[in-house]
Amino acid sequence: MHKAVAKEKVWDALAQVGLAGYEDQLACHLSAGQQRRIALARLWLTDKKLWILDEPFTAIDKNGVKVLERLFLAHADNGGSVILTTHQDLQFSAGRLRKITLTRQHLTEY
């Protein structure tokens, strides 16, 4: 499904999501948060410009959320776009984030 990627890029992607040193571990032996980070690391190995993510911060600690926010911004800086759902308050600057809030009564856009 995915094209081959150099091992160095794989190690770099794992390091970016905080999994350096876990390269030889089976995913089934990792925590839910670590398994989630594996899935997110795969994003950095793709050349797709649009990422659509449903609750990417679930089972990720606060430090991990900050790391992922920086990586999402880096993707945007390289011409990509990230659409995501979350229940967390993100720390992006207002000029870089378009936030849509859904409520029962109406849709609010910031």
Characterization of this structure:
The protein has 110 residues and is α+β, with helices and mostly antiparallel strands. The protein is 35% helix and 15% strand. The protein has three helices and four strands, in the order ααβαβββ. The strands form two sheets. It has a two-stranded parallel ribbon with strand order 1-2. It has a two-stranded antiparallel ribbon with strand order 3-4. Strand 1, helix 3 and strand 2 (81-85) form a beta-alpha-beta unit. It is globular. 11% of the residues are buried. The model has no long low-confidence stretch (mean pLDDT 82).
**Overall geometry:** globular
Low-confidence stretches: none
Q: Report the portion of residues in β strands.
A: 5-15%
Structural class: alpha+beta
What is the tally of beta strands? 4
Cα end-to-end separation: 37 Å
Mean pLDDT: 82
Element string (H = helix, E = strand): HHEHEEE
Main pleated-sheet profile: 2 strands, parallel
Question: What are the key terms here?
Answer:
single chain; about 110 residues; alpha+beta; two-stranded parallel ribbon; two-stranded antiparallel sheet; 3 helices; globular
Task: Tell me briefly what this model is.
With 110 residues, the chain is α+β, with helices and mostly antiparallel strands. 35% of the residues lie in helices and 15% in strands.
